[in-house]
Amino acid sequence: MGLCVRPSVLLAVLALLLSAFIVMGGLPPAGVSASGGETRVVGTYQNVNFPSGVEVGITIESDIEIKDVRVYYRAEGSRQWGYAYADFEPGARIVASQSVPVQESTYIAPGADVEYYFEVRNIEGKVVKTHPAVVEYLDDSFDWRRVNIGPLELVYHDIGDSQVEEAAQALREDLLRVKDLLQLDQVRPFKGVIYNSYSDANAAFPVTSQTTTDHGTFAGYAFPVQRVFVGQGLDRRIIVHESTHLILRDALGRRNPELPAWLNEGFATYMEPNVRVRSSSELYRRTPHLKAMGSLSGTPETIPLFYQKSVSVVAHLIEEYGAERFRSLLSEMARGNKVDVALVSVYGFDDHGLDSSWAGLPIPDPIVQVPTPASAGSESGREASGATSNTSESSAPGAAPPSTSGDSRQQEPQGQPPAVPQQENSVSQQRSPDERNEPSPFIFFDAWILAGVALLAVVAVSVKFIYNRLRQRPEDALDSWDSWQGDYRDDD
Fold first, then answer.
1. What is the pLDDT of residue 449?
2. pLDDT digits (tens, 9 = 90+) for 111-148
3. Would you say residue 407 has pLDDT above 70?
4. 3-state SS of 374-426?
5. Selection from 19, 78, 329 nearest residue 223 by Cα
């Protein structure tokens, strides 16, 4: 026999349970997860103190003594959280506060979104955590304005609307050109913060070295993980350069491989409008080998040469071998391959061979061996140069080259790279003797020296032995023979 419960009775029971739940405390405060009801978060606050950091605070009421309050923070987009212990005076109601550092182990760029949350622990070990909150780290002493240009949110101050609109029209085409060359379906949104004076920008830039800071060597910095770049002035060249660093990160995927600086900076410079590409004949003897250009270093006098060679080499790869193979190079690196392995897979030469190809010299065989080249069957290694008409922690961040009044990049037409030998068979015939695969004659020279030393040692030992035997008396020889025979035993 079944039990029949009337709907009205069931509703009354549910209403009673709900009333009891509300009386006992109900749900924890919005935005808070708690393992006990003794600690209650009353509220939180945040305050940007540019350029020292972001001050965040929390107000807590508790029936049990609070042991510690931690604030966890990171630049939005970063995978790693930092934390610090907040300061507070013990009591039933406490206010804990802490300044999130922005200049210590991880530089947080102006305009970046800072994500943070609190973790409150009482003496019984019970924990209350707040949900993450976000604050934009930006100097509030300026009247910032914003405009969206494709995926770019440009943040600027004290620049006329007509000037911004004119720049925005050109920048839309520039960013589309970068996207098309990389063949990206979509670019994740990013932000660019533009300071209107050198002094303001220089105060916000990270300090790389005192010399470059004093000389104003760099005019912009990109922070791909934070999806932000910072630049000086409404300069189309700088904005495109830094934006390219961030778009390039999308092309490389989530693995975020570390690109050599010559490739990273060279591609960003190549995408600048009206960039001047110098020939290898101008740069070959004045610049280091690509192997030494894995990171950006030098003095204010030599850094411009670094950029000039970098863009010249990248232009050579794209215009001489085609944009498709350049994208394949990035794909190989996105899979985790080092640049030498990726170059051999796609082009058949390593960075030493690339240096030679760029300079119009015979291309040596690569030292790195790749079992299955990505571009097998493309013997000639050429695509039509017209393919470029379809116009990226670390990491690592990129810096725009110096912006000087004497820069002729935007006034001269784009140069043409030197020709490259067409066939691999002819390369080996053109090499000089010291570039061939034959062993060095010094190897044989070393072998002869070792053999001579060994022969002299044998002769010396033999002479000493004969001399001792000649000096030995007959009776001594017999004694020696008898002693040897005495030591020998015949078991038979």
1. 60
2. 999 999 999 999 989 999 999 999 999 999 999 999 99
3. no
4. CCCCCCCCCCCHHHHHCCCCCCCCCEECCCCCCCCCCCCCCCCCCCCCCCHHH
5. 78
CA dihedral for 208, 212, 217, 219, sign (positive or negative): positive
One-letter amino acid for residue 433 of the chain? P
Q: How far apart are CA 468 and CA 484, in angstroms?
A: 18
Residue with tokens 């739940």: 21
Q: Give the count of beta carbons closer than 10 Å to the beta carbon of residue 189.
A: 12
Distance between CA atoms of 305 and 242, rounded to whole angstroms? Answer: 19
pLDDT value for 408: 35
Tell me how far apart the alpha carbons of residues 149 and 172 are, in angstroms, rounded to a whole number: 6
The residues, any chain, with a CB within 8 Å of residue 150's CB and separated by 6 or more, are 171, 172, 175, 176, 179, 187
For 161-178, what is each residue's pLDDT tens digit? 999 999 999 999 999 999
pLDDT at 38: 74
The confidence score (pLDDT) of residue 271 equals 98
Residue 32, strand partner residues: 130
Higher-pLDDT residue of 249 and 215 is: 249
Say whether pLDDT at 6 is over 60.
Answer: no
pTM: 0.68
**How confident is the prediction for the chain on average, in pLDDT?**
77
Which tokens hold the place of 263?
Answer: 């490739």
Neighbouring residues of 249: CB distance < 8 A, sequence distance ≥ 6: 224, 256, 392
- Cα(129)–Cα(343) distance, rounded to whole angstroms? 49
Do residues 421 and 430 touch, judged by C-beta distance below 8 A? yes
